[in-house]
Design goal:
The chain has 194 residues and is an alpha/beta fold. It is 39% helix and 29% strand.
């Protein structure tokens, strides 16, 4: 969950992570080892995400562009059309695991921002070598604030899994993404979160 994201994604040191979590370096390292083992076992079971195998870089870019356009248009039917029949949506560490376009479509219609997708702006990023989007939620003042990240796995020309990380503002900021913006989302084509 958060611990693994801080170390593996944001490249925080064990000392920085321990300080943030209020534990010792040894405690942080032990928790990280357990988290990695759990994630590896879930990945082998196919419970967290599918393997990323796009048909080509061009197809990957086109698919993410279509996802962004459908999101901006608040067209959940168009989002669902991009999903494989056995597509998976997870949100570690939450116990959310939805399988299939119908379940994922119902989630998009009701959960993020209460189903008001137009309150969330997306900008493309790369997360661990996979296509992803950083999400920003519009606040009462009209500005957009760091909200989360969605990481995609593709097979051929379909999205096979979406792994959502909510409330990861500190990871987004550490990766060089803005904490907030007004107007259009920041261009992030050259940003990479590893």
């Amino acid at each position: 969950g958060t611990l693994q994201a801080l170390v593996d994604v944001a490249e925080w040191s064990a000392r920085e992570t321990a300080e943030l979590l209020g534990t010792t370096v040894a405690g942080a390292n032990s928790a990280l080892q357990r988290a990695r083992e759990r994630v590896d076992s879930l990945r082998l079971e196919g419970a967290l995400a599918r393997e990323h195998r796009p048909a080509s870089a061009r197809d990957e870019q086109e698919l993410i562009s279509r996802f962004l356009a459908a999101w901006e248009a608040v067209d959940v039917d168009a989002l669902v059309e991009l999903l494989a029949d056995d597509a998976l949506l997870t949100m570690p560490p939450e116990p959310i695991r939805l399988v299939g376009p119908d379940a994922i479509g119902a989630f998009f219609r009701t959960v993020p921002a209460g189903g008001f997708l137009d309150r969330i702006r997306l900008t493309p990023v790369e997360f661990n070598g996979q296509p992803s989007v950083a999400a920003y939620l519009r606040g009462e003042d009209g500005t957009y604030h760091a909200y989360g990240v969605m990481v995609f796995a593709l097979a051929g020309r379909a999205i096979t899994s979406i792994t959502g990380f909510a409330e990861c503002r500190s990871v987004m900021i550490r990766a060089g993404l803005p904490e907030w913006f007004a107007g259009d989302p920041p261009s992030a084509s050259s940003r990479q979160i590893e």
